[in-house]
Design goal:
heterodimer; A: alpha/beta; Ubiquitin-like (UB roll); Rossmann fold; four-stranded mixed β-sheet; 19 helices; 14% strand; globular; B: Ubiquitin-like (UB roll); five-stranded mixed β-sheet; binds iron/sulfur cluster; binds FE2/S2 (inorganic) cluster
Chain lengths: 572, 430
């Protein structure tokens, strides 16, 4: 690789040709402020905060300018500071100064920059225009008055997710990020993945805050409030308290939830194991008796929304299994109260999810097989972080605790549901043993792991070759789906996760998520799996008892009633 | 006494625009025939010798631009003619397209041959429906007669020209925004680098030149670059079309050799101010150009001297303003233009221009204050060096030069006084 030599301030440095000044400065240990830049998205160079002096008449944006041999870059001079501060002041003059009541207070990139650049007055005229807030749906709120037009949401919605419901339109002062005809999100094809809310640097797109509903239930003495935690939350919630990305804090999380006052702290991992038994049986059943092949997984509600809105013709390919969170909800209001001697109408089910689409999912009319709404409230990882802070829970110093029985018992196969490829790997571990009747010694299916958009693998099952594929991020899913539609695909089993990286990269995860951080969370997921005694779903003792006591066997009538669902076309 | 030269306007008014025969009789297509006998390197050498610089406004040396594109191996290459002519007060590209369209067709064909390109595009301003019709007709006639299309003049070289129109956005005159628009995308500028010579139209190497720049090519090829250059000054080769407008007697387009002074253009060619009005200031290069006073009238029009005096050649627009006009109101109108035309993408231009307009509007309403001067200065210092594209970079130039010239008038407006009587202050001013 060709190296380029340059000097940034007083640091001489060599970097590969094509490196941006911003990245070179990072390597030189020099910080340049940025706002529109996001390491995983295309460079836009629109905010003008990363300006540096390269000795030309014009300043240049460090995020978009490649290094040149012999370049001399000055990142800190009056000229540079004045320009950056002007850009920031211009943005602030058109920004509501609502920090004290803003959802991003303390986690806002704009606010942080204002402090960093020592802005003590704005000097320009106030241009703020109050625009209506769109809270038309159950998952995502848009407050355009706070939008600083960085364009990140558009890129993620269009290029990464290929949903494309937000776009930039108009010019000049009217330039804004809109839906077609400025419709409310609820009237668009939005799949509620929340990826836009995860990349927005300010409080212009965020998840609907449902913490008040949970506080209320916790206060209600008549209510038995149970909580389930998704696999991906245990490797990310620590970040809300300043812990290193990739810290595994399962035990502290359980302890913290008890401190909040939940009556039982359960684990979505339990129903993740259950999903494998149901979905694995469905796969074998289809392979044996015919049925739409490839079978596609169904645990990601953002993906299900995408299916119903854009690919309804592929509905027969998708597993009828509910997502683990909804299987949990159905059992938490049937099996569990029966066993615990509770009245189901007094059980209140809260989910802690990395996901915003699950807020929408839990309110789907068909998700009431217990006779009640199976899951009452879904909170994102970020919302849980806010509740814990509000309650003054000293997270870092908590002694780890264990989940409650029986819906808290799980295997390593369930933990890996949190990362892309995990559902596939978990399914293979179980299906292999059922089909071959032999013990699987090496449980690691490394081909399906990692952050790559589309992964493929081939597994021998009793002489029969099974081809599988894994896609994460809807843009990648779309590539596979088009192949299926055109009959160009010979896979038998496909895992699709709506969010890039899988649930560890969910739209409700802590702010500041980047691919680098996702890799760390993924590593933590597999470390957690390795640390488990049981690593195959069918070995979960609590699941075995559940079948014995309640469901009978996978795909039984009772299973169908509680654990399976159906999809309908919502194509416009 | 200023003289008019006819190098690129030689046929204007002398040929019928819809007659290829007229064009041929006026030595049309001799240049292309000559070019076919030259190597691309020889053609580029002549363009370099001509000292021709981009007439779209930026003044980039055309020879260098051509050389850079020639050095790139990737194919296909595209030829784009920028006929957006969006700079207010500029109407010279229109003359060439309406009166001598074959010259542009021939010029683009020479360029196409030089770069081995088979497709050219002319991006014509939406407000020029007649030019579009005329150009289309010329393209069709040239094709019928074998001067365009497959196997031009029996050679194995083929070239086609496609005509497209813009939707009226000024920023689509900026070359990268124009390519986005040609690709059917929203006309917003691209990040550079990569330069258009590397990643241009449909991501392929592309030449973008202005109509007037192209129009000089046949003369240069036919008569040699040195001959063309000899009409101008040492650094600024040839002639420039000047669009004279505003408070002058004879408005219009004039082809003058570089080196002609601005005073000569305004007084000798333009006939000075109408009936006894006094010169107040002029603006050169369109709305994106600077304003200047009496003291700079003797600046020769050429890239070097205008540069030395804080002026530009730009598109060649020259707007004359007499003493019946208010400098504050003038600045505000310019600012309105930029607020309207900003594409909105970058912070500096989107937010900076609205602030500037807000401030200037307050002045015209008698609500300005001393602190506003500091804000204008801040914007005038920062926007030119930190906007995303040329639009934001030049948006404050007219306003800041206007204040330099007429600070006293701006101060009077704070007191609620407009000496030209243009600004009407609501009761009590501020
Ligand atoms: C905002 C803006 C508007 C422009 N408008 C035009 C235009 O209308 N016509 C034009 O030829 N060049 C225009 N330009 C300049 C072009 O970007 C480009 O420099 C030119 O087309 C190159 O051709 P030339 O080298 O032959 O001048 C504009 C530039 C900017 C920044
Ligand atoms: S988005 Fe950021 S800067 Fe704006 S009000 Fe909220 S916290 Fe403050
Ligand atoms: S939630 Fe997902 S689909 Fe909806 S606007 Fe945001 S990125 Fe697009
Ligand atoms: S909504 Fe957020 S992400 Fe989208 S452009 Fe505005 S500030 Fe950027
Ligand atoms: S300077 Fe910025 S906002 Fe203005 S036209 Fe160029 S890119 Fe658009
Ligand atoms: S971070 Fe470079 S321009 Fe926004």
């Amino acid at each position: 690789m060709k190296l380029v030599n340059l000097k940034i301030d007083d640091v001489d440095i060599s970097v590969p040709a094509g490196t941006s000044i911003l990245d070179a400065a990072k390597q030189a240990g020099i910080k340049i402020p940025t706002l529109c830049y996001h390491p995983d998205l295309p460079v836009k160079a629109s905010c003008r905060l990363c300006l540096v002096d390269t000795g030309r008449k014009k300043l240049e944006t460090a995020c978009s300018t490649p290094v040149k041999e012999g370049m001399k870059v000055i990142t800190n001079s009056k000229k540079v500071r004045d320009a950056r501060r002007t850009a920031l002041k211009l943005l602030l003059a058109n920004h509501p100064q609502d920090c004290l009541t803003c959802v991003r207070n303390g986690s806002c990139e704009l606010q942080a920059l204002a402090a960093e650049l020592n802005i003590t007055d704005i000097s320009f005229y106030n241009m703020v225009e109050k625009l209506p807030i769109d809270d038309s749906n159950l998952a995502i709120v848009r407050d355009q008055s706070k939008c600083i037009k960085c364009g990140r949401c558009i890129e993620v919605c269009q290029e990464v997710q290929c949903v494309g419901v937000i776009n930039s339109s108009f010019r000049s002062g009217e330039y804004k990020m809109t839906t077609a005809f400025d419709k409310a999100l609820a009237e668009t094809d939005c799949v509620y993945c929340g990826q836009c809310s995860a990349v927005c640097p300010v409080g212009a797109i965020y998840e609907k805050d449902d913490t008040a509903k949970v506080w209320k239930a916790l206060e209600d003495p008549d209510m038995h409030v149970v909580v389930q935690t998704a696999p991906a939350v245990r490797v990310s919630i620590g970040e809300e308290f300043g812990l290193e990305p990739g810290s595994i804090v399962t035990g502290q999380m359980v302890a913290a939830l008890r401190k909040l006052g939940f009556d039982k702290v359960f684990d979505t991992d339990f129903t993740a194991d259950l999903t494998i038994l149901e979905e694995g049986s469905e796969l074998l059943e289809r392979l044996k008796n015919g049925g739409a092949i490839p079978l596609i997984t169904s645990c990601s509600p953002g993906w299900i929304n995408f299916l119903e809105r854009f690919y309804p013709e592929l509905i027969p390919h998708v597993s009828t299994c509910k997502s683990p969170q909804q299987m949990f909800g159905a059992l938490a209001k049937t099996y569990y109260p029966q066993k615990a001697g509770l009245s189901p109408d007094k059980v209140f089910v809260v989910s802690i999810m990395p996901c915003t689409a699950k807020k929408y999912e839990c309110a789907r009319p068909e998700m009431n097989s217990s006779g009640y709404q199976d899951v009452d409230v879904v909170l994102t990882t970020r919302e849980l972080g806010r509740m814990l802070k509000q309650a003054g829970v000293n997270f870092e110093n908590l002694e780890p605790e264990e989940f409650d029985d029986p819906l808290g018992i799980s295997t390593g196969a369930a933990v890996i549901f949190g990362a892309t490829g995990g559902v596939m790997e978990a399914a293979l571990r179980t299906v292999y043993e059922i089909v071959t009747g032999t013990v699987l010694e090496d449980v690691d299916f490394k081909d399906v792991r990692g952050i790559k958009g589309i992964k493929e693998a081939e597994v021998e099952l009793d002489g029969q070759k099974v081809k599988v594929a894994v896609a994460n991020g809807l843009g990648n899913a779309k590539i596979l789906l088009d192949k299926i539609k055109n009959g160009e695909c010979d896979y038998q089993f496909i895992e699709i996760m709506c969010c890039p990286g899988g649930c560890i990269g969910g739209g409700g995860q802590p702010y500041g998520t980047t691919n680098e951080i996702k890799e760390k969370r993924i590593k933590a997921i597999y470390d957690a799996d390795k640390g488990m005694e049981l690593r195959k779903s069918h070995e979960n003792p609590a699941v075995k008892i559940l079948y014995e006591e309640f469901l009978g066997e996978p795909l039984s009538e009772k299973s169908h009633e509680l654990l399976h669902t159906h999809y309908v076309s919502k194509k416009k | 006494m200023a003289k008019i030269v006819e190098l690129i306007t030689e046929n204007v008014g002398k040929v019928r625009p819809d007659s290829l025969e007229d064009y041929l009789n006026a030595s049309g297509y001799e240049a292309l025939k000559k070019a076919f006998k030259m190597t691309p390197e020889e053609i580029i050498e002549e363009v370099k010798k001509s000292n021709l610089r981009g007439r779209g406004g930026a003044g980039y040396p055309t020879g260098s631009k051509w050389e850079q594109l020639h050095e790139i191996d990737e194919t296909p290459k595209y030829i784009v003619c920028n006929a957006d002519e969006g700079e207010p007060g500029t109407f010279k590209d229109k003359i060439i397209m309406d009166k001598d369209p074959f010259k542009l067709v021939e010029a683009m064909t020479i360029a196409g041959y030089t770069f081995g390109s088979n497709h050219g595009y002319i991006y014509i301003r939406g407000e020029y429906p007649l030019s579009k019709k005329t150009m289309q007709k010329a393209v069709d006639l040239a094709k019928e007669a074998g001067y365009l299309g497959d196997n031009i003049l029996g050679t194995d070289y083929s070239f086609d020209i496609h005509i497209r129109t813009g939707a009226g956005a000024y920023v689509c005159g900026e070359n990268s925004a124009q390519l986005n628009s040609l690709e059917g995308k929203v006309g917003r500028p691209r990040i550079k680098p990569p330069h258009l010579a590397e990643v241009g139209l449909f991501k392929k190497p592309t030449l973008v030149n202005n109509v007037e720049s192209f129009a000089a090519i046949p003369y240069i090829v036919l008569n040699g670059g040195e001959k063309y250059a000899s009409f101008g000054t040492k650094e600024s080769g040839g002639t420039k079309l000047v669009c004279l407008s505003g408070n002058v007697v004879n408005r219009g387009v004039y082809e003058v050799p570089f080196g002609t002074t601005i005073r000569e253009i305004i007084y000798d060619l333009g006939g000075g101010m109408p009936e006894g009005r006094k010169f107040k200031f002029a603006q050169i290069g369109g709305s994106s150009g600077p304003c200047f006073g009496e003291d700079k009238l003797d600046t020769p029009l050429c890239y070097k001297e205008t540069g030395k005096n804080g002026l530009i050649v730009g598109s060649g627009a020259l707007l004359v303003v007499d003493d019946s006009n208010c400098a504050v109101d003038f600045a505000k109108c310019i600012s309105e233009f930029f607020v309207h035309e900003s594409c909105g993408k970058c912070t500096m231009c989107r937010e900076g221009n609205r602030q500037l307009l807000r401030i200037l509007t307050r002045f015209t309403e008698g609500k300005g204050c001393k602190e506003d001067f500091a804000l204008i200065e801040q914007l005038s210092n920062v926007l030119p060096i930190s906007s995303f594209c040329g639009l934001g970079e030049t948006a404050t130039r007219a306003v800041s030069t206007c204040i330099e010239l007429f600070r006293d008038e701006f101060e009077e407006h704070i007191e609620g006084k407009c000496r030209a009587g243009i600004c009407s202050f609501s009761e009590g001013g501020k």
